[in-house]
TrEMBL record:
One Pfam entry name: UDPGT
EC number per UniProt: 2.4.1.-
Keywords associated with the record: Glycosyltransferase, Transferase
Keyword Transferase found: yes
Organism from which the protein derives: Papaver atlanticum
PANTHER family named in the record: GLYCOSYLTRANSFERASE (PTHR48047), SCOPOLETIN GLUCOSYLTRANSFERASE-LIKE (PTHR48047:SF45)
Name of the protein described by the UniProt record: Glycosyltransferase
Matching InterPro entries: UDP_glucos_trans, UDP_glycos_trans_CS
Family: Belongs to the UDP-glycosyltransferase family.
Length: 492
């Protein structure tokens, strides 16, 4: 996408305040860059450690003449009871740390309001967990948008569950995935079945989560509108359902990651890659088109050693080429999951990247023909944009909804992962055995008719994604409409 820079004497100024988590900062920085590319002044608000990860792409845009900058505010983690140096949700290692992190995010309201007073931006885009931003912006008469790194299907299904609680009327026996723990999500355009095991249990039991969900919902309803990282053609029925049936004012402006056209932008999103991107590209260049499986479980998910061992064995026996991103649970953890001699045996066809990979660069390479993913929405949409079919392995949050969306709605992937929700504690989750992993990987990467059809569909959907962000496309037009609406609202 090459967004046009619209010369503008009365430049609109937008504040973008992402929730402090890798997967929420990454797309929001892209949104900031997108606004700047359309001639607006974009200011990203973030904390000192998180700012270090966004500065490179912002600097590149500044050098190319865009009006984009970063405004730093302190993060009161220690005051909220967190250990020193934690400014990002990805560093949370126990469920008890969660409320403390949210307390710290609440404490940022005051410095944020000072910035609003000082700079008076024309409008604000803030992440959904920053619920108080709706109230703060209202004090200054500034419209607030909620940014969702999610799709309309998830937003609609989640809202249906919140309103109708269909799971309450059924038995919650999770031992049999085909038993009565299945329920239909009421009121959706398709008949979508879900299992009680796929819903986060803490959402029903813990006061903290119940309260937080209520606040998110209220701040959304009271906000000016919602920005959704999706495109109309991907899920027209759900885009309509969310806007018309549920009555939410929403703009689809994605896939946002398609803004990154150049290798440097693709390689340097989020953290610094643990591997030289030129080496990865050279490695991929040596492979046949569609022959490499990319395996990554995002920036937060944790997989236990027993499961990683099964995964290693499954990948080895599949005979496929693969790039596997492995993150240890704690920095000083030993790596005990690789079978003896594994790296030697898969040399040349298996590339292991520790910690952080240049994901966009990898997915966009023609050698990549499959993505084993934890179904975080950014990763899913990046895969959709690149036309790469998926093997789904969800763990928590919206990931089970995304798995259903991929496998049942757009039919661009096949399921593999466990059937129960697990977050920060993967010890009690049922193990996916290596023979099943081998079978599913071989199926997706193989030459069977169904797999070929899925690859074809993936390429078609990817074309639609690209068109949507080009001039004249649905997401491009939506962003134009939003900017125009803000111009009228602010009289600029
Ligand atoms: N990502 C990356 N390299 C990695 C892991 C993740 O660039 O090694 C990026 C990925 O491209 C995506 C984001 O981090 O944009 C992860 O977001 P997602 O919603 O997929 O998952 P989460 O991290 O929230 O589980």
């Amino acid at each position: 996408m090459a967004p046009a820079v619209i010369p503008d004497n009365h430049q609109l100024h937008v504040f973008l305040f992402p929730v402090m988590a890798q997967s929420l900062i990454i797309p929001m920085v892209d949104v900031a860059r997108l606004f700047a590319a359309r001639g607006l002044k974009s200011t990203i608000i973030t904390t000192p450690l998180n700012a270090m990860n966004v500065s490179k792409s912002v600097e590149r845009d500044r050098l190319s003449g865009l009006n984009i900058n970063v405004q730093i505010i302190p993060f009161p983690g220690v005051e909220a009871g967190l250990p020193e140096g934690i400014e990002c949700l990805n560093e949370i290692t126990s469920p008890e740390m969660m409320p403390k992190f949210f307390r710290a995010m609440d404490m940022v309201q005051e410095p944020f309001e000072k910035l609003l007073e000082e700079h008076r931006p024309d409008f604000v885009v803030a992440g959904m967990f920053l619920t108080w931003a709706t109230e703060s912006t209202a004090k200054f008469g500034i419209p607030r948008f909620v940014f969702h790194a999610a799709n309309f299907f998830y937003l609609s299904a989640k809202e249906s569950l919140r309103l109708h609680k269909p799971y309450e009327t059924i038995r919650t026996d999770h031992t049999d995935e085909n038993s009565s723990s299945l329920f239909v999500i009421p009121g959706l355009p398709d008949k979508i079945k879900m299992s009680t095991a796929q819903i986060p249990s803490h959402s029903e039991s813990s006061n903290f989560f119940v309260e937080m969900k209520k606040k998110i919902s209220e701040s959304e309803v009271n906000s000016y509108g919602i920005l959704v990282n999706s495109f109309y053609e991907l899920e027209p029925a759900y885009a309509e359902h969310y806007k018309i049936v549920l009555g939410r004012k929403a703009w689809h402006i994605g896939p946002i990651s398609l803004l990154n056209e150049h290798a440097a932008d693709k390689a340097q999103r989020g953290k610094k890659s643990a591997i030289d991107e030129h080496y990865v590209l050279k490695w991929l260049d040596s492979k046949e088109p569609n022959s490499v499986l990319y395996v990554s479980f995002g920036s937060v998910s944790r997989v236990n050693d027993n499961q990683l061992l099964e995964l290693a064995m499954g990948l080895e026996s599949s005979g496929c080429s693969f790039i596997w991103v492995v993150r240890k649970i704690k920095k000083d953890d030993e790596e005990r999951f690789l079978p003896t001699g594994f790296e030697e045996r898969v040399k040349g066809r298996g590339l292991i990247i520790r910690d952080w990979a240049p994901q966009l660069l990898i997915l966009d390479h023609q050698a990549v023909g499959g993505f084993m993913t934890h179904c975080g929405w950014n990763s899913v949409l990046e895969s959709i944009s690149a036309g790469v079919p998926m093997i789904t392995w969800p763990m928590f949050a919206d990931q089970f909804y995304n798995e259903i969306f991929i496998t049942q709605v757009i039919k661009m992937g096949t399921p593999l992962g466990p059937k129960e929700h697990n977050w920060l504690d993967s010890k009690n989750v049922s193990l996916v055995k290596n023979d099943k992993i081998e079978m599913v990987v071989s199926w997706l990467m193989g030459d069977g008719e169904e797999a070929k059809d899925m690859r074809k569909r993936a390429k078609e959907i990817s074309e639609m994604a690209k068109k949507s962000v080009e001039e004249g496309g649905s997401s491009y037009a939506n962003l134009t409409n939003l900017i125009e609406e803000m111009r009228i609202y602010t009289n600029k």
